[in-house]
């Protein structure tokens, strides 16, 4: 049990989201949070909620279990969008079970409610030269992106 309120306890978990939001957005995240327009919550706190007219963004979705992916997707109400961001590469997945990301994609692909973008080159890597070079070397050695 860490000291502090829920936000203080979970902020480290959302640090990568905050970092990318601040880097690639013109909007001020701290103001959006104060206005209640941006909300972050761990999975345990979304049970029983409905997301109405919202964008639900899940980062690192390759690490969701099938059950967690269903829990999140079943909270998305009319007028909302669910965006799952993840890397299905074997070295990016931290769970041993089937990924909830690929499970939902396979399950819903034919339902005309799903859009899917798969980046298969290293050109999309924004982290920097080391990350891009590593991915190029892995690709060259036969590891699929």
Q: What is the structure about, briefly put?
A:
With 145 residues, the chain is mainly alpha-helical. It has helices at 6-10, 15-24, 29-34, 66-73, 100-108, 129-140; strands at 55-58, 81-84. Helix 4 (66-73) links the parallel strand 1 and strand 2 (81-84).
Q: How is the largest sheet built, in terms of strand order? A: 1-2
Determine Rg (CA atoms, Å). 17 Å
- Low-pLDDT stretches: none
The DSSP helix count reads 6
Mean pLDDT: 84
Number of strands: 2
The percentage of residues in β strands lies in 5-15%
Structural class assignment: mainly alpha
Walk me through the structure:
This protein is mainly alpha-helical and 145 residues long. Helices cover 34% and strands 6% of the residues. It has helices at 6-10, 15-24, 29-34, 66-73, 100-108, 129-140, and strands at 55-58, 81-84. Helix 4 links the parallel strand 1 (55-58) and strand 2. The longest helix has 12 residues, at 129-140.
List the helices and strands and how they pair.
Elements: H1 6-10, H2 15-24, H3 29-34, E1 55-58, H4 66-73, E2 81-84, H5 100-108, H6 129-140
Parallel strand pairs: 1-2
Describe this protein with a few key phrases.
145 residues, mainly alpha, two-stranded parallel ribbon, 6 helices, 2 strands, 34% helix, 6% strand, globular
């Amino acid at each position: 049990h860490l000291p502090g309120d829920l936000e203080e306890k979970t902020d480290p978990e959302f640090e990568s989201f905050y970092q990318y939001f601040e880097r690639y957005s013109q909007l001020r995240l701290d103001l959006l949070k104060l206005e209640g327009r941006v909300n972050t919550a761990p999975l345990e706190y979304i049970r029983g909620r409905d997301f109405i007219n919202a964008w639900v963004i899940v980062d690192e979705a390759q690490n969701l279990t099938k059950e967690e992916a269903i829990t999140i997707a079943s909270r998305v109400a009319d007028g909302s969008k669910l965006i799952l961001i993840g890397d299905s590469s074997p070295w990016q997945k931290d769970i041993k079970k089937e990924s909830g990301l690929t499970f939902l994609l396979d399950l819903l692909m034919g339902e005309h409610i799903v859009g899917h973008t798969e980046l298969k080159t290293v050109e999309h890597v924004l982290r920097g030269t080391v990350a891009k070079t590593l991915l190029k070397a892995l690709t060259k050695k036969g590891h699929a992106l």
